[in-house]
Amino acid sequence: MILMSTIWSLIVVLTVDQQCDVGISSGDLRGLYLLDELHFHWGSEHTIDNKRYALELHLVHHKNNYPSKENALNYTQGIAVLGVLFHESEEDNPVLNQLVESLEKVVKTEMSTQLEKPFSPLQLLPEERSHFFRYYGSLTTPPCSESVVWTVFKTSLPISKSQIKHFYNIDSAVGSLGHNFRKIQPLNERKVYFLCDEKTGLGSASSLISNNSTHLLFKMFVLIYYISNQFGNKLYSF
Hints:
Layout: E1 2-5, E2 10-13, H1 16-19, E3 22-26, E4 33-42, E5 47-48, E6 51-52, E7 55-63, H2 69-72, E8 79-89, H3 97-102, E9 112-114, E10 132-137, E11 148-153, E12 157-160, H4 161-167, E13 171-172, E14 175-176, E15 192-196, E16 214-218, E17 223-227, E18 234-237
Parallel strand pairs: 8-11, 8-12, 15-16
Antiparallel strand pairs: 1-2, 1-9, 2-4, 3-4, 3-17, 4-7, 5-6, 7-8, 10-11, 10-15, 13-14, 17-18
């Protein structure tokens, strides 16, 4: 795994071999998607009840029908992105320690460093993964292709204020990245679905439904994360 900074974000790039080892399927996804990269936005790009979170992680996958992410961008639902929100906490998140400690090596655009210990993407997903938002949209950075199936988890993870500060030290070619999130976009008649199982009922989901553009589905869509070889040879159900 390689950690690098770009003009838009901080990215963890998988090697070609690692991309073949990590994938996601089911969960109402039409096929198998292979993980290409993980990247971060400080200041979340999604909001829930108008609340913006401290950090947002995107796990970007391309459909295995296509040879690469770049090729998959040309096709409807060619890309599947998992969005994970992080809330500010008093305590450090130990899972982020290796990344945070490596940030000083990538403070300028196009700087990169090898992560000493490859980690499982599951470590950066919430334990509660059966409740999530689903919609069809675009990438949030150029070329902003309209080819993405979005899955944004309701449950957020912690990150400390001291850990967040390290992200703000990263500079782009034109100065500090600052808040590198895209502003909230119009729905343009898109539908946003909230997925939960029948046992949950409205309960915790009811406060998330603020207008007619969000639709609640009482059905379990089980997402399967496949991680093999160096990551563990297991199928993970969300």
